[in-house]
Structure formats: C-alpha cells, structure tokens
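Reviewers of the previous submission asked for a worked example of the structure-prediction workflow described in the proposal, so we include one complete record here. The input consisted solely of the amino acid sequence. No template or homolog information was supplied to the procedure at any stage.
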Amino acid sequence: MPETRLAAGGAALRRIGALLLTAALAGVLVAGLVLPVAGLTGFAARQVASGIQELPASLEDAPIPQSSKVYDAQGNRIALFYDENREDVPLDKVAPIMRRSIVAIEDSRFWQHGAIDLEGTTRALVNNLLGNETQGGSSITQQLIKLILVEQADSRAEIAAATEQSYARKLRELQYAMSYEEEHTKAEILRDYLNIAYFGDGAYGIASAARHYFSVQPGDLSLAQSALLAGLVQNPTRFNPTEQAELALKRRNVVLERMADLAIVGKQQARRTMRQQLDLEVTQFTNGCVTSQAPFFCDYVHQYLLADEALGATVSEREHRLRTGGLEIHTTIDLRYQRAADRAVRDRVDPTDQAIGGLAMVEPGTGEVKALAQSRPMGRNSVAGQTYLNYVVPEEYGDSSGFQGGSTFKAFVLASAIEQGYPLSTSFSSPQTLVQPAGTYQDCAGNPTYEWTVSNSTGTGTFDMYTGTQTSVNTYFAQLEALSGVCPAVTLARDMGVTVPEEDEVGPFTLGSTNINPVTMASVYATFAARGEYCEPRPVAQVLDRLGEQLEVSSGGCEQLIEESTADAVNDILQGVISPTGFGSALILDQPSAGKTGTTSDSRAVWFTGYTPNLSTASMIAGANQAGQPISLIGLTIGDLYTRFDDASGSGFAGPVWFNAMSAVQQYLPDESFVPPDGSEYGEAAVTVPSVAGLSVDEASAQLRAAELEPVIGSTVDSSYAEGSVASTSPGGGETAYEGQPITLDISDGTPYVPPTTEPPTTEPPTTQPPTPDPSPSPDPSPSPDPPPTPDPPPTQT
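From that input alone, the workflow returned the following structure tokens.
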C-alpha cells in the first residue's frame, strides 16, 4: 500500500511540475526566452535552464551537404560524388501541390504561426515530461533546425544531442527557430526544409526524392506522388515504398485525408487518388565511378581533384568537399571518343588476358584528355578480369608506374638533335651490331656510362634522320644519341612530363628503357603536333562551387619547349612512319598523320603513338599478370591472336588498336595538314621531290639526280603500276627534301595493293606451336644492352 501511495504521489508531482513547466514555457515565449526560473524548483528548473542558457543568439548558417556532379565536355552528366545524394532547388521549381502536401501533414498552421506552434509544442513538452517519451508538435521551422543541427554535427555526441528524446532538445530548437524565423521568410524556410529533409532509400531533398521514386523533376510531381513523398519524412525507413509498399500506401492516404480535411483538395478527388497504386518508377542512384560511362576516366578526375589544393588544404578536406560541396565538375572527355577508345581496346585485348591494353587521347595545344580506356574493366570480380587499378594514367593519379616505352623514345633523341642544330641530313653507317665503348655517353652529371652493345633487326646501311626513323634503326639512333647527347634528350622527356630516373641517363634511353603511361605518351606526341608547345595533360576543364563561382583548380598550363621549326621537322619525319614504306604502312588514315612504333626488350610491351594536327593517341599492349606485374608477351594468347616473338611489334599489335580508334573519330577532327619544314633544318638547300611513281627506275633516277637528290633502291611492294616500275618514293612526290638527300624508290611487283585487315582473325588460336606467320612488317625491338643488361621495369605498384 505505501508503494501505491508513493507512486500516486510521484505522478501527481510530475503533473504539477508539468503545469509549472507549461506556465514557465509560456513566460519564456512571451519574454523572448528570458526564462523566469525563479518560480520553478529542483529538477524542472535545472533542466529548463540548461536547455536554453549559453546558446548562441542564432544558428550558424552553414551549407547543407549536396552531391557533386561530373559532366563530359558536351554537358552530359557522367557521374556523381556524394555522402548524401542531394541537390538544392528553389521553391518555384517544386510543384505547388508538393508544397501544400508537406505543410498539410507536417505543420498545417505553418503560414499562420511564428517559429513555434505554441499549442502543439507545449502539448508535446508536457507529454514528454509525463511519459518520458516524445510526441509530435514541432513546427516545420523546428524540424528544419533539428535537421541542420544533425548535418552540422561533427561527432556522435553532437548528433546524439541534436536528436535526443527530451524537452531540453525542444527548448534548444525553440531559440534557434525564433532566430531563424526572424532572418528568413516563410517561403525560404519551406524551401530549406524540402531541400534538407530525408525521404528514405538514399534520397536527400525533394529533388533527389522525385527523381529516385518517380523519375520526374520536382516541379512535375502529381497529387498522388506529392502525398506519398510528404508522408515519408515522418519515418523514411518504416514507410520506404521500395520495401514497405503497403505501409507506404496507407501513409500516403493519411496525407490525402488530411489534405481533404483542410480543403486543400476536394474529398472526392482525395478518394479517387487513394484508389491509385503507388506507380513507382525508380531510378537508382549511382555514386562514384564504377557505374560511370567512363569509369577509369572518372577515377582519373577524382584523383586529379584530390591532388588540387583549390578544394582544400588536405586530402581529407578535398574528399569531403568533393562529396558534400555541390560542385559542378566539367571535364574534358568526349564520349564519342571514349566509345571508340573502349571498342578499339576491347576488340583486341580480353579482360582475362595476361596483358593490359590501354589507350589515351590528348588534344594538342590544350592538353585536354579526350578519352582513355583499358582492357580490364572496373570492378571486384578478378575472375572476370575486373580491377580497380588504373594503368593508363600518370602514377600520381593511378596505380601503375607504367611500362617501358620502347622505340617511341627515339623521338626525344630526334627532337633534341634537331633542336641543337644537327641537320636532317645527319647520316651514319648503321651495321647490324654496334659496340659503343664505355664513355661514349655521359649522364646529366657528366659521368661516363658503360659499354653498350646495340643490335638492329631492320636492315643495315647508311641512314639519315628520315630513313633511320622510318624503319626505326636502332644502331642509327645509338649513334645520333652519342652525337647529340643523352642528357638533352632526357631533359626534354622530363620537361614533357616523363619521370626519368637517374639510372636511365644512359645510352639505352633512346630504346625506351624508361617507364611511361599512355596519357603521358599521348601528351608527348601532342607536343610535336602543337608545333613544340607542351601542355600538361588534364581531365578537368572547370569546377564551379554550389553558388556557380569558378574555383581556381589547376589548368595544367602550356609552354613552348622546342622551336616550331624543330617540331615541324619531327612531324615531317614521323609522317614517313605512316607511309607505304614505313612500319605503319597498314595504319594510314584519311587525314595527314604521323607516328612512331615501339617494342621493348623481351617484348614486355608494344606501343604505337600516332597523331594528326588535332589529336594525339597512344596505344599500348603490355604483358601483365592479374596482379599487374610486368611479364613478357611472348607466347601469350591476346584476344584471338597467338603472339610470337616475331609478331609482338608495335605496328602489328598496338598499331591496329590505334588505327581502329582513330578511324572512328577522324570524322570529328578538322581536316588540317602539318606545317612543312622551312628548309633550314636540312643542312642543305631545300628542294621539292619530283613525282616519279610509275616511271622506270632509270627515268625516275634521272629526274631525282636532276633535282640534286640521290636515288636509293628500296623494297619490292604490291602496286598497280607496271612490274619493275617505281611504285612510290620516300619522301613522296611533292614533299620537301634537301640537296643530296637519299630518296628511297620502292619497286612495283605488278600486283595491286590490298590493305591488310585490321580485324582479328575469327579462327581459334592454336594450342601448340603457331604456324609460320605471313610476311609482315619487321618488328621494332629494343635489345637489351650487354653488359650490363637493360634493367627490367619495376613491378607495377598495386
């Protein structure tokens, strides 16, 4: 019995305390939250006072998290980054029926009362005190304050304080709500509430909710759709329509009934709408890069921005801003180029091959990366060949230290020699094997390097810069590098973004012993296309903050690294590679183009880098196991092709990938020619090569000698010209040459030329030793020096 009397007495005291609290609260509200605590005693006074004292006058106006959107060069959205998928929209972009729905169910007197609905709030506080549980009664402004406090919380303790189930929290919200109402209009408050509210299933804010559940803009929401969304905010998990359709339907109808009671809609209209199904048309959210149309380009953008201090002082700050800052990230990717790149790579290299196919496209004169692709798709399923390792971008933005560049590095020696004034007529007798004694080369510190034996598999004889480059003669470039110096070529490579370690400042540098990636490779050759102007490659064109203000992100920058005349000469020479007599004879585009093959020691990687005046593309196939570690291509099955040592050439494997990609995009490029050399680089007087195709060898030779040129008999080729007559020359008729320059005459065999197919064969690869291949262009190997051997590439960083 005493216990019963005590319990009854405690209940009475709580009721008395509640009445006192109610009176005190009324005094607080009337006095502007100057609490008359003197009339209260004990527990009630302490709790009320602690709830409102030592608070700031108003809530800090911090922006709420918004998703950042990534766009392609044409303005199409390709990815989202977010912690909360939210996009702010102005109130006039929200359907009026949606505005009325949320007010009807959450705060029907919103437009009449101030910050606080006194009747509802005091009722809730009294019941909380009496029953130790929370009841409703918060105005929309109070709910907004609570959501803002949660968003601004930096710790679990702050989140708990913002959501605690007590009247003390209510009192905190009251003061903030009153200040907020003084500083904002009712329309602004409703807008902010609709943008911050959580609608369940990952949809933050009304814009995301409308797109997620119904695939419509918030301004196009119907009555039924608006009523459903308005009903979700009370308990987004319980009423989630994608998982709890029946509960969601009942909740929607509660909202419709309330709207009818308030005469917002007619009762008959409400009943008709209640008979409708939910009719969801769910659009799933994508976050990050995996589901992007260009996953590895997206990853490149992500890593590029994480390295830019414009987004924050630390990496964590930049990541936070990227995921919450509502940024607009405008990138350089062209999805037409991206689709061509993806198709070209995946048609030749399968995801599960023990090789990586990679390709990058860079625009000369801007450094904008237009596309990049690799054969292994993004994902976790390693059995299917998926990976998160990005092999085609610079190491600071990816996961690979790159692969040896092979003979593509001869372009550095060529350009540095021309830049130093060595004439294009510089000739060397180039034997099959050449021993370069110790001290022939010096590193950048002036130290002599070791003895180097270099071999050549592309013929012997006397070559100049044109003919030595056209068939990539190793022993010619070993001598040109000895003449012009290792360090100038290395320095030029470093200036163009290549990471060249000190141990690579040796003779084999010209044969590509240094690692490089497709993006950097494409930007190197884009420098020649841009007449010597190097532009740092970049995937981002512009970043705007949530207010539309441009952030000062790195634009890369451009610099004139070599003279225009030097680049013009390099372009003229490299056009000879993509000619009927060059290694790239099967890769001729409809537009003027130039390029260079590359094959590394032990065929660990093959390259073809080619360009027009407006686009540079680097294609690579590199041996790599599933862990990304470099291995030889010899004997591997790649796509539908069984590779042999003789087959693993830049022109034969990487070349078709390049050709297929460039053939698909050349229609989008301006039809522009390279600027021809002005003649000063030749070292002799410049002359125009006569057109002698179709003439007999004697007649052609006579005309060439009359023009002060030296005819040299080349190879026999397929041609519709009469057998024994001249099929073509290199340089070709109408091109510029210098007095005394050797002009190669290729002789027709009388058989019309049929371009080789660029599609892989449809037959299954052999399971034993492959058959002897048909004659094809010779490979472009870069043999290891002996002694010491050319160092193997370091293991790929994973």
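The chain has 23 helices and 24 strands. We consider this example representative of the routine output the project will generate in years two and three.
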